[in-house]
Amino acid sequence: MTNPDAAFAPPFEIDEPPRWRAPVIFNSPHSGSVYPQAFLDASRIDVAALRRSEDSFMDELIGDLSHRGFPVVRVHFPRSYVDVNREPYELDPRMFAGRLPSYVNTRSMRVAGGLGTIPRVVGDGQDIYRERLDVDDGLARIEALYKPYHRALRRLIATAHQKFGTVILVDCHSMPSVGITRDEPRRPDVVIGDRYGTSCAPQLPDLVERTLRELGYSVGRNKPYAGGFITEHYGNPAAGLHTIQIELNRAIYMDERRRERGPRFAKVAADFAVLADAIATLELGDLRPVAAAAE
After folding, report:
1. What is the CATH number of the domain that holds 274?
2. 91 domain residue, yes or no
3. Residue 275: which domain range?
4. pLDDT by residue (tens digit) across 44-74?
5. What is the pTM of this model?
């Protein structure tokens, strides 16, 4: 069995500023673009097809925010290899040679769609693998990549919570400019996901939407993306833990077909800085746990 993290140096990075400006963390879990050769050899599709699942360049759009006093988390391994925005063990038994452990969730909607912790398909529905994977190899990816990432993210969140009494996690993603079906309406420039009001205090999505609209972007909420595992798992407003997902329409910052930065790339990156500054102005007393705020 090969070492799954050997191809990544490192698997993820956390750029933590010397001095935190506010308890606001920016996270890019799906922009990883390092494809191990063994993964490419096992795939029935080429790297261009695999990259359709990437949130390409999202890590770059938020990369400079660490210089403004905000921690930035960037994953380097691709989501088609391991998807950290899933439960630890959402696995499709059809992908594996051998029996999966009893604790594995084989029945989630994401597994049914082929988009589990180790995806079976890329975003447009193409099967990834030529042959079934060895169960131990699949579990090794989770141990070597998924779990260390989440341990590090939890530590970072705990640091912010200890310093400030509250924390805001901004989970940054991008989406194709058009949906899979013709019935889906034109997608806005940005979709805000707060798990339908459950992952953060309402002041946060209200501020994000207002700021983005003032910057000239069209904004939607929760459709077609309300937030994944990270938004749901780390969002607990009653405990002072606020998580919001931001999905950028790829057409506003890149050429989707060529997978190249577009003419508005620098402007979108600058607008992310404006958004970060705006989030930092939120009144922390309104975001702390109810009991703490009453003391």
Report:
1. 3.40.630.40
2. no
3. 12-78+135-282
4. 999 999 999 999 999 999 999 999 999 999 9
5. 0.94
